[in-house]
Prior knowledge:
Largest interface: A-B, 22 and 19 residues
Order of helices and strands of chain A: HHHHHHHHHHHHHHHHHHEHEEHEEHHEE
Oligomer: heterodimer
Number of strands of chain B: 5
Amino acid sequence: MPKSGWLRLVLACCLLLGPGRVWARALPVQAPRPAQSRAVDSLRHLLSLPQTNYDQVLLLCQLSDQLWTQRTDSAAVYAFKALNLARRIGYRHGEGEALNRLGAALRESNLARALEVFQKSLRIAETTHDRALAAQNLRSIGIIYVYLRDQRQGLSYYFRALRLGEELGDDRRVVIELSNIGLAYDLFNQLDSARIFQERAYTLARRLHTPTNYILYGLGNVARKQGRTAQAKAFYRASIIESKQVQHLRSLNFSYVGLATLYQQQGQADSSIYYARLGYQAAQTNGFLRGVLNASTLLTQDFKARNNADSALKYQSLKIIMQDTLFGQEKVMRLQSLNYREQQRTQEAAAAQAALKARYRTYALVAGVVALLALALLLGRHARQQERAREALEQSLAELKTAQDQLVQREKMAFLGELTAGIAHELQNPLNFVKNFAEVSTDLVDEITGEHRDPARNTGLEQEILAGLKQNLQKISQHGQRATSIIKGMLEHSRSGTSQRVPTDLNALVDESLRLAYQGLRTKDKDFSAELDTQLATALPPVPAVSQDLGRVLINLFTNAFHAVQQRQRQADDPAYQPRVSVTTRAVPGSVEIRVRDNGVGIPDGIKAKIFQPFFTTKPVGEGTGLGLSLSHDIVTTGHGGTLTVESQEDQGTEFVVTLPA
Amino acid sequence: MQILVVDDETDVRDLFQQRFRREIRSGEWTFSFAFSGEEALEYLRAHHSEVLIILSDINMPGMSGLDLLSHVKEEFEMPPTTMMMITAYGDDDSYRKAMALGANDFLTKPVDFAVLKEKLAHLLPS
Lengths: 662, 126
């Protein structure tokens, strides 16, 4: 199965990432948001009152803050509103604030985009000399690096944020930075440092009367890891009570999971399950994927320990979904951020070099030969630096490319798996013929030499039998050849590397692909049947194509179409519904068009834009890699210079149109 | 006494002719062949009264075996033609459809010729 390969990759990632799953639990704090629905209501009320656009932007940001602890989706909506308004009225400070909120809301679903948004907000803060906003963004970016387990970068951002907070005299900010630093140390099991910073944060927070829900969780973690069990329980419980008071579902999730981990370590599976479930619910309500992952991981282990296979399996599959979403994204991100840093370094080097050149021109007359020598040295050093940057960049690009190649190969194998069913069926016919012709030949030979031989030799009959034998041997050879070419075709499908485009009979390819896809599905689900409607243009010009690539695209489209009608048939339970998949080929000026249409479930508008994206899939875990349509799109556009488009209506059907230049 | 075999695989003809060589030579049974549903209908229109048994594959491009079955049942009510359907998929759906359309028997591929011979002998008392 393709999934198991993917899982292995994820596991390999986990190993690279260091100490087990502890990392994700030590999540830093975003802000001291005293989240109460009362607060949300009163903010909503304020928003309805007349006010300046400027105030409105800030109110929207505050609303986003409040909602972030409860529902990440809604937080994103308000951040977007604030951003649009700020941009419309040219309010730079507001734009920066809104971008920061947007980043916080995006961090769960799209790490790369979140980082980009935070950096944009940081640039605005720097150009407008807005130190509070800068501190906020330094913290947010630090959190991302901690997510990526880059402790050095993460801590360096946190400490910059801490310094700014201290300069501003903003103690509330300082509390959070201290606690975040504590959690970053905790993540790498540097428990003494973690404890010092959490305790500093706690003392300060108590003095200021600000929330301590996250700090208590951090203290609980340190206590648990240091074996101070009773204290750890007390800290977690206190954090749970406070998290409930301020309705902070994320810290609630952390503390429940912390407590559940503690019980698991003590071998009390029932208590562990109880608290992990509560943690799971809190994260689920908030839309906090990492929290869901951590709770599911614990539950899987607990249920396995209790030999409760069903429940373990349920949480295991949840865990896999979360891991796929989070780790796949993070691996790519780590590579990209490497890339990004190298690009920045190269740009800085280039800028410095340009500045040096300008200065040289001004002082050239005075500085003379000495300056020239110094410059030569400096330039030499820059050249070396650039060379190093280039090497690092090339290496990270190569890594990215390998990762991509592996994914493409995995999709190919998955595709092959689907194809095998269809091909096994194709092979059945020639093999039947080989068997039958061989058997009938044995009978013929018996007739001349065996017991039933005519004692008076009948030359005519013998001649006839010999001719029959010769014919049968030819048939056996022909059908053997037919089986060989079917297998050869299958191997071609799995071959890596690019092939030449050669003039191809599209109608034949369409026909073959439709048959393979249909048979592939029928071998899996015997009772499935659909009406197949092929309308192939008679005078279709040959089209330059790589037939095994284009065949994959077509089989993929047909298989999707069959799945869509199958799904509708199952859902609708309408005896009058007749599943139908049709394909037409048509020559249009300059190109050839293939339309694959089904009357299946259709694609909801919300996801239509995503279907060509890699890893997007609507299939359950374990089925489909989410790469089929993305690769198909790639094959048609980059591989053949054509287009692949989709039109679909829910509960009506879907039509994919492939256009290829003739 | 004719048997019409309908299959899109043309080699089925040679196979049947070899398998039933004795019966054909003795004139017991006669086989005709059609390689699509459409061809089969055409043949039946020309030689209707001669054909007693139709042996048809279900999964054929164009007119499927099931389509052919319903056409035959509609168009040629008298004398009743015995229809045996052959399919590579032993699926319940095809079986139910074939039986509902009035098929007399149902075989799955690969065809066991000994069984087929017995069934034909039973249907065609010589």
